Amino acid sequence: RTDSYFHFPHFCSCYYFHYFSVMFQATQDELKAAYRRLCMLYHPDKHRDPELKRQAEQLFNLVHEAYEVLSDPQARAIYDIYGKRGLDVDGWEVVERKRTPAEIREEYERLQREREERRLQQRTNPKGTISVGIDATDLFDRYEEDYEDMVGGGVPHVEINKMHISQSIEAPLTTKDTAILSGSLSTHNGNGGGTINLALRRVTSAKGWGEIELGAGDTHGPLFGMKIFRNLTPRFFVTAQCGLQFSSRGVRPGVTTVLARHLDKNTMGYLQWRWGIQSSMNTSIVRDTKSSHFTFAVQLGIPHTFMMMSYQYKFQDEDQTKIKGSVKSGFFGTVLEYGAERKISRHSVLGATVSVGVPQGVSLKIKLNRASQTYFFPIHLTDQLLPSAVFYATVGPLVFYLAIQQLIIRPYLRAQKEQDLEKQRESSASDIARKKQEAESAVLLMQESVRRIIEAEESRMGLIILNAWYGKFVTDNSRRHERAKVIDVTVPLQCLVKDSKLILTEATKSGLPGFYDPCVGEEKSLKVLYQFRGVMHQVLSGDTEPLRIPKQCKSWDKDGQTSVLDTTWI
Predict the structure, then answer these.
(1) pTM score
(2) Residue ranges of the J domain (predicted)?
(3) Residue 152 pLDDT
């Protein structure tokens, strides 16, 4: 890529490395040509001023260091395959110099596996659920005619009637073996119990795994089980599970088999057969797309036989809002559910569902997912179908959420974002100061080259950069109170002009020579005012968008939105 040689000197600086990475397809001749050109630009002997000479020497050393890596066949092979992260892997010093790229790839993967195994020894995957059942039927069901005359009858009685707590952790033993320890405690109306389970899972191949489970509890007794998963074809898999439950009544065996098949890209079909304490046969179809999720299921069994259908719509917003509804009907009655969920922070999702059924009554279910922990609060409102209960169960959570969103969540997230930005600025302050100094040094060293480029472009009515700014621009009237944070990059951009063309690849522009990040963690753009063939133009480009000028039209992206806007000044 001969148009990328200006990014060459910053290969060994993380500041420019991600931008320079697009150049690894260049040939050795192109690398040599870029190396010679940059050596001429940054050679210390071309500058008499002691300060400029010192700055040129620093950049010259970066050029030389980058060229040494890319001209070394082994280092070049590592970089071409894995990028700069490959050069940072421990253990390359013992690799023979004469190895081919294929051998280097194999060695890299071996080193990566060793590092992965070390990380596995230190990592667990905790998951937990806390469920608190609340009986609030006293708010709506009042059977006593003289209820108000009873002692305390004027205050509805709300109580917690059941709780369930479960927790599990995964302890990777090797890259193929995992131990899973889980436990649970439950209580309902004063009676309860607990269980503890240990499972050992082994990945037997890329197509399947097997698991052995041992468990014990004070209500069900010891448990022994086995589970197998296997991909039979790329579109078809099977799961088989069997277990033995030991209790005072004897041994109770159980078998569960699930067959699943991809019907199309977004649709799965399931067939489940269960034999044991609760025997049943279930078939279901699940369709999951970017904007919706649909499930249809039918089950025949003892004691539960039912038909269920649910639909979920996914809004394409940053909060990942979803609305859902379902209907389930069987021998137990009919239940209609509707609700919504929304992301309220980076790791938290809040949801609420209203359940209306016969003979179950009306319930409100609130669920909060926080990372790998789930908090579930089912609130039973009434045993009857009361319109007032349905109304309050629907409107109450919505009003409460809107109030909390405005008074607590949004101010908290805004303050958290500002705090994170401030921490990011503080942690990178010294690094940004160094990058700023590098950029200013590069601009000083570019002055003579830019003067010659401008003279050449003027002689053929070519491309001349009149003004260029990079950073955060404030164009929205609602954000006028914010201060624009931009830097002048006219000289660095003019230095990138070759043969009356300026080509920037798809990478953040803070990695260009003479650039630095003036507003860490904030959205940035590049604004350029240039002259071509005697006519002035203006272009505005996003930070990571590719740019090619001159341009006399609008460039549209795949979604039909303006990607880079170029305006001709008349």
Answers:
(1) 0.61
(2) 15-83
(3) 52
